[in-house]
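note to self — DONT lose this again. spent like an hour looking for the file last time. sequence + predicted structure for the chain T wanted, 358 res
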Amino acid sequence: MKKLVHLLTLLIIASIALAGCAQPTAAPTQAPAEPEAEAPAEPEAEAPAAEDAGLYVVINKSADQQYFIDLQSAFEETIVGLGGEARKFDAKLDPNLGISLVNDAISAGAKGIAITVPDQTIGPAITKAAKDAGVVLIATDDSIVDDEGNPVPFVGFNGSDMGKKVGEAAAQLLQESGWMDDSSKKVGVLSVEVQTLSVCNDRTDNEKAAMIAIGFPEDQIFSVPYTGEALSAQDAAGPIITANPDITNWVVFGCNDEGVLGTLNALGTAGVSPDDIIAVGLGAYEACRPWAAGQPSGFKAALFISGLDVGRTAANVLYDAVVKGIEPPANTYAPTSIVNPDNYQDIMDEITLANCQN
């Protein structure tokens, strides 16, 4: 009996041992799980493409002048950098052409227009055309009003402040010259004026006021009416200079560098030496040319104004209005600084300095 029990015990142990050595049943084979597809990332915001940002047009009254060349170039560069398309037009001091160019810009699909008008009287006509077409319009340099007499948003310079700075510079140079205390000299002032343009009157009125403030006789200030171009100033100044042969020394200022340059040309034709002239330009882009060349010049100083600043600012104001819905400010002013042959290279921008060499 004991042997039987012992045998059964050995059989049970063997069975357990065989079971422990058996391979476990394999789980069903599965293909590796595919990773879940991620949701596409939201694209990063980018500057609008040209067709989204739209067309912007810059129109200037005399786009062959260096100041307006700079303005238009900076406008175009800024708009393109923002993803838009820019076009440049020249109104050639022709009011009718100015109106036509605004209509051309609207027909071309412009969403924003910056214009320096050839004549402020066209303001109501062009603002109505732009408003009817849903186009944003801003004025650069010369202010205008709409058909209801409301000022159009303006980008440019403070005309009264500009005139004050030029006039004070001229007055200081005159006082330092000693001419007014020298009995052998008689001094006259040539104020070169675009008398039909309010922003020019703001400049020249303040220039003349600064001279009167130092005791300069008002009856020795001669107005030289011109259109804004150098040749026009030269033609207008010539007869005034000829009619006053007793004046030995001249002070010259005006609405822009072209006006002063043209008057200096007339004085040169009349035989007046640069040493007997104190001319203060407004712009500095013409004044700096003889300085850069080391040539004697009646330009003793100038107020530096940058068309680059105005062009960039105008482009950004229009873009913000069209793309971002930001209403253009009533007035946006660019900075100005008096320069002279000693400091102009430290103050003027590289592009303007390069143009001084031309």
